[in-house]
Amino acid sequence: IFLMAAKVIILSLFCFAVVQSQVDLTLVPNASGSDVVKAVVSKIETARLFPTDHRLLRRIAYVESLDGEDTRAFRDGYHGGIWQVNRATLIDTQNLSAHPGLVSLYDKVQAYFGIDWRFVTWEDLRMPLYSGLAARIYLWSVGGIPLAGEIDAQATYWRTSYNGTAKDFATLVKALEKDEECNIDVDLIFVLDSSGSIGRGNFQSVREFVKNFIMSGLTIREDEDQVGVIVFSDSAQVVFNLNAYQNQAQLLSAVDSIPYIAGGTNTDAALRQLIDEGFTEGGGARLDSQTVLRVAIVMTDGKSNDPSDTLIAAAHVHEFNPAILVYVVGVTDSVNQEELNEIATSPDFVENLESFDDSLLKEYQEERSYEICVKVSSPEDVGESINGTLEQGEQARFQ
């Protein structure tokens, strides 16, 4: 994702030339719609300038203005944009005496987006990216955002901290998320560290993490979503393949029976198992379908037994099928960060957690469930093609 800089095209041809460019709609005043909102949210999240907002930024856009489609969203004299950021709220995001931490945040916003937030005006917020950033900076300054699953708590937070109107936040959010239910079928394999350092208590938290993932938007059926599990310690084993269970109740029961083994951390064996059996037709993977998203979530709490073999096995996974999205969760500071980065599709697909605390796992699960079911198959950049003809000596400027 990138912020499109101003482009100046000067053509000095003898006759004429056909020009085609693409306008980034997140920077077009009064642009609206769910795709524009998703693109803004994706840009902000990809920048990694803020802690997770538990989907609140996405939800506020819909609650405040129906993603800018509400007829009053861009009313005369009001410039708060899709996120309906009041003038006073913008001023608060520029108040360094009240929020000294803004100084370092400004530097990051400038470096990533090329925006000097000190000089942003309320009128600028008619551009979706600016409106979204203003809302996100303000939420950052307030802090304490409730988890995504706590919709009523988020509604209270929104009323007391953001807007205070009488809109039915919960009803609107439920309508939004019904519309954004998982829009692509998924073959999902969990690769779980079952070594001695995990401990039985923590491994039970891992089982709950898997169950929460299954219950958050997946439809377990042969022609929709499938889940498999691999565990590893001294060796690796497939607990059940993708096509083993075709209804949620049976799958959840099987998750309760995932064995805790103890022993070492043979990560490379697990990665080899992922491509030797997990994502194969024999393992239930739907390789002939172009509409199925293939995802692996690897969770570990330590360094592998053989780092060099682990890096080789990770490379083989990516070579086997570059379309497989590999997310990695490294728990505790005992992990080898280089290993995690190589195992994952990219370092952006790595998350580090301090512990197996249920709230941390739940937070990660909510974010990834939403990303896999909604964001991965949504456009990150929303553009509009502009075509035209330039006569000799003419200029065209695109912002």
What do these coordinates show?
- The chain has 399 residues and is α/β, with parallel strands linked by helices.
- Helix 10 (267-278) runs parallel beside helix 11.
- Strands 5-4-3-6-7-8 form a six-stranded mixed sheet, with helices on both faces.
- The two termini are 16 Å apart.
- It is elongated, with a radius of gyration of 24 Å.
- It is 39% helix and 17% strand.
Largest sheet: 6 strands, mixed
Helix content: 25-40%
Terminus-to-terminus distance: 16 Å
User: Tell me, what's the shape?
Assistant: elongated
Question: What's the overall average pLDDT, rounded?
Answer: 86
Q: How big is the Rg?
A: 24 Å
Number of strands: 10
Strand order of the largest sheet: 5-4-3-6-7-8
Task: Tell me the structural class.
Answer: alpha/beta
What proportion of the residues form beta strands (DSSP E)?
15-25%
Number of DSSP helical runs? 13
- Poorly predicted runs of 5 or more residues: 1-20, 385-399
The helix-strand sequence is EEHHHHHHHEHEEHHEHEHEHEE
Question: What are the salient characteristics of this protein?
Answer:
399 residues, six-stranded mixed sheet, two-stranded antiparallel ribbon, 13 helices, 39% helix, 17% strand, elongated, disordered N terminus, disordered C terminus
